[in-house]
Amino acid sequence: MEVQQRTVDVDGQKMMVWERGPADGIPIVMVHGFPLDHSMWSNQIDGLDPDGDRFRIICPDLLGCGESDTIEDGTSMEQIADQLAAMLDELGVSEPVVFCGLSMGGYVGWQFLQRHRERVSHLVACNTRASGDSEEAALGRKRMATSVVLMGLQPIADAMMLTLFYSDPASSEDDGKDEENRVKINKTIASTEVQTIAKLQLAMAARPDMTEFLNQIDVPTLVISGRHDTITPVEEMREMADSIAGSTFVCIEDAAHLTPLESGQEFNQAVRDFLIGG
Ligand code: MLT
To answer: pTM for this one?
Structure first.
């Protein structure tokens, strides 16, 4: 089945969405991290559903990211969650969805679940956290929001590349895939609008602490972490999973922060095991 590129109207802005799978498949909304776009889910678009008949995979570019229109000043994680609900209305998806978010996509996921509970059947929280920012972390984001305007994106892209991927120092094997992914992600970051970086950083700095929400979660939840993730460390993610009743926790061994891209097969297997038992 072909990948379809759709344009939907959200808050008067154009949001681009990549979709694959039958209209009556289990809808799974995959929300990217900061400051990426739908292409970080390429392994899932291509490989989550090998027969192409089980899942309706829906990967938006959040406003300000990828090919979507710009993001408004003062946009919050809550508003982004509401924009995704509007996107689903536009796509005609009224049944509950599997919400799968990575990192910033996970922050949006808590808000989506809290504000649109009836629209969620399952949650997949990847490489993310429930706590809000410390004062120091929020200050760092505010500094980045200013410095990006002065210095441009390449320094940010270069710095982020050091933490997004895992390289095994003992391995001399490289099938070129890893390098291809790094080049792709570096390009995505470096071509993001400077204003998007600033606005999303401010939105993340202001996001609420959702730790207390975890024990209210009443949908089946899968938590996926990467053994070498230094942004959202595995111990913190395990603790988070322990606070969500009945959740399933998976740690992917050869990955850091971008588990779906770094270890596509393991990631897809974990999601399939969770949703359809294999
Ligand atoms: C992400 O991958 O979305 C970011 O690391 C989230 C963050 O900066 O907290």
So the answer is: 0.97
> If you measure from the C-alpha of residue 161 to the centroid of ligand 1, how many angstroms do you get, rounded to a whole number?
12
Within the chain, where are the H helices?
A: 42-47, 77-91, 104-115, 135-151, 154-164, 177-190, 194-205, 234-242, 259-262, 264-276
Relative to the CA of 106, which ligand 1 atom is closest? 3
33 in contact with ligand 1, CB cutoff 6 A: yes
State how far the Cα of 52 lies from the Cα of 74, in Å rounded to an integer.
39
Neighbouring residues of 232: CB distance < 8 A, sequence distance ≥ 6: 103, 127, 128, 129, 225, 257
Pocket test for ligand 1, best of 204, 225, 240 (most atoms within 8 A of CB): 204
Cβ(232) to ligand 1 under 6 A?
A: no
Query: Given ligand 1 and candidates 196, 231, 261, 262, which is best to mutate, with the most ligand atoms within 8 Å of its CB?
Result: 231
Beta carbon of 231 within 6 Å of any ligand 1 atom: yes
Q: Taking Cα atoms as reference points, which of 150, 147, 91 lies closest to residue 119?
A: 91
**220 vs 122: CA distance, rounded Å:** 5
Distance, CA of 69 to CA of 61 (rounded, Å): 9
Residue nearest ligand 1's atom 4 by CA: 34
* Six-digit token string for 109: 């996921």
Tokens 């924009």 belong to 83
**Rg, the chain, Cα only:** 17
Running along the chain, 278 residues long, what does each successive block of 10 average in pLDDT?
Answer: 94 96 98 98 97 96 98 97 98 98 98 98 98 97 94 91 86 70 94 96 98 98 98 98 98 97 97 94
- Please tell me the distance from the alpha carbon of residue 32 to that of residue 19, in angstroms, as a whole number: 14
